[in-house]
Amino acid sequence: MTQVSSALWLAFACCWTLLALAAVAEPAVVFDGENYLDVAEPPDHKYNVKAYGAVGDGQHNDTDAFRKALKAASEAVNYSSVWIPEGRYLIWPVLIEDCMNTWIEIEGTIMAPQEPEQWPQNEYYFHFVSPSNCSIVGVSGSSAEIRGNGMGWWSRPAEEGTAPTLLLYSGTFESYPQPGVYNISMFDAPSSHVRVLGSRMYSGPEVSGVKMVSTDTGRSSGIVVTNASLFVEKVDIDVGGVHVTIETGYGDNNYGFMRIDQSTFRRGEGVTILMTDGLMGNISLSNLDFYSTSYGIRALGARDGNGELIGVFCDDLYMNEVGTPFYVSNDVCPKSHKGCTRSAKGTTVTSIQVSAASATQTSGHAGVFQCTAAKSCFIDMSDVDIRPARVGDSNSFLCKNAQGFVNGAISPESCLKKPSF
Q1: Which of 10, 162, 194, 218 could form a disulfide with 240 if both were Cys (CB 3.0 to 4.6 A apart)?
Q2: pLDDT at 176 over 90
Q3: Nearest-angstrom CA–CA distance, 397 and 414
Q4: CA 175 from centroid of its chain's CA atoms
Q5: What angle do CA 189, 195, 201 make, to 5 degrees?
Q6: What 3 state SS string does the chain have?
Q7: For residues 338 and 43, what is the distance between their CA atoms, to the nearest angstrom?
Q8: Distance from first CA to last CA of the chain, Å, rounded?
Q9: Each residue's pLDDT tens digit, 291-349
Q10: Does the pTM exceed 0.85?
């Protein structure tokens, strides 16, 4: 794609960004234990799982009671909620279809079965299919939790199959308010804690006020977004795998929107954007803190791909003892692409913008920008200060076929070549 056409796509993206931000301007659903705050139409009815036979002792299987309460709430005429009071509720995996105007309000703890054999399938714990204003909400002031008990999965060899995600959202998200996950803690997902799959819309689910913690060393990840839009804010993710993965394209000539704001990432591998085919971009990463992660932000294009990643906006970032703060390349071979070779067209990675970033690194590289000769990458940097975590260690940018503009103070010295156009 020419630079002119890339500029047109960026202008188009900005318009959709404004529309998407307007669509999520209303505050998230909050229940303080007595009153619903900032909600125009709170639930009219609560369906307490204990009224349907739930015990809440962590031993009794409460799945049937949860299903019955969810069915009653979904069939109600007005807003309704499934109420999970204090206690520990053992619930097996549930497929949730046709969920409209229903909240799952958690005051206690929802627990997944500990043994993989107790999962009837290995794809999800809760699977929401095309939900419409169907959200999981933690009661303010409570210890609302979802525990994935992924330890049994991690003990298995990885080649035995994919472990399930904890919360899976799939389908389309065409109505407003959008579904979401609010104000809860999530622990030890067998694989990802939240996955959003295939909405291809300019709006999508929200994840806000959520804490994700995993005790493993790499099998459990935070959020995975595939062919979808997602709005993330005020999350705290401490896992061994990738904190947030944004992968593949949104389809030919289809531009989505992704925002991650005011969030913290600990351990793990940071934020990864992986482009294969189609068109992906309009990704906003702002007000983010990284602590002891192996990477900060990676923007990657598959060497055997035929897509375009245009417009990743990184602003107000703090990184402490991060391996490599920034990594950009269109010459990677994803694990799922066995033996991939460079395609004739290749993947375009352009308009990666980094501003107001402060970091200490442990790898010797402040940033690595490695791209192909046929498809140079374009990165712009403004006011970037990256230093070695240990005094005297090496500190430099590494560039190969990388171009871009530099504004303000940049440390260490940039290696980007100024574009010739």
Answers
A1: 218
A2: no
A3: 6
A4: 21
A5: 170
A6: CCHHHHHHHHHHHHHHHHHHHHHCCCCCCEECCCCEECCCCCCCEEEEHHHHCCCCEEEEECHHHHHHHHHHHHHCCCCEEEEECCCEEECCCEEEECCEEEEEEECCEEECCCCHHHCCCCCEEEEEECCEEEEEEECCCCCCEEECCCHHHHCCCHHHCCCCEEEEEECCCCCCCCCEEECCEEECCCCEEEEEECCCCCCCCEEECCEEECCCCCCCEEEEEECCCEEEECCEEECCCCCEEEECCCCCCCCCCEEEEEEEEECCCCEEEEEEEEEEEEEEEEEEEEECCCEEEEEEEEEEEEEEEEEEEEEEEEEEEECEEEEEEEEECCCCCCCCCCCCCCCEEEEEEEEEEEEEECCCEEEEEECCCCCCEEEEEEEEEEEECCCCCCCEEEEECEECCEEEEEECCCCCECCCC
A7: 49
A8: 14
A9: 999 999 999 988 877 788 888 999 999 999 999 999 999 988 776 666 677 665 668 88
A10: yes
Give the span between the Cα atoms of 264 and 249, in whole angstroms: 26
pLDDT digits (tens, 9 = 90+) for 230-253: 899 999 999 999 999 998 754 444
Which residue has 């002792």 as its token pair?
Answer: 57
Can you tell me the distance from the alpha carbon of 77 to that of 88, in angstroms, rounded to the nearest whole number?
29
**Is the CB of residue 251 less than 8 Å from the CB of residue 223?**
no
Phi, psi of 34 (to 5 degrees): -130, -35
Q: Which of 197, 186, 207 is nearest to 135 (CA)?
A: 207
| Two structure tokens written together for 163 | 């472990």
Measured CA to CA, the distance from residue 176 to residue 257 in angstroms comes to: 16
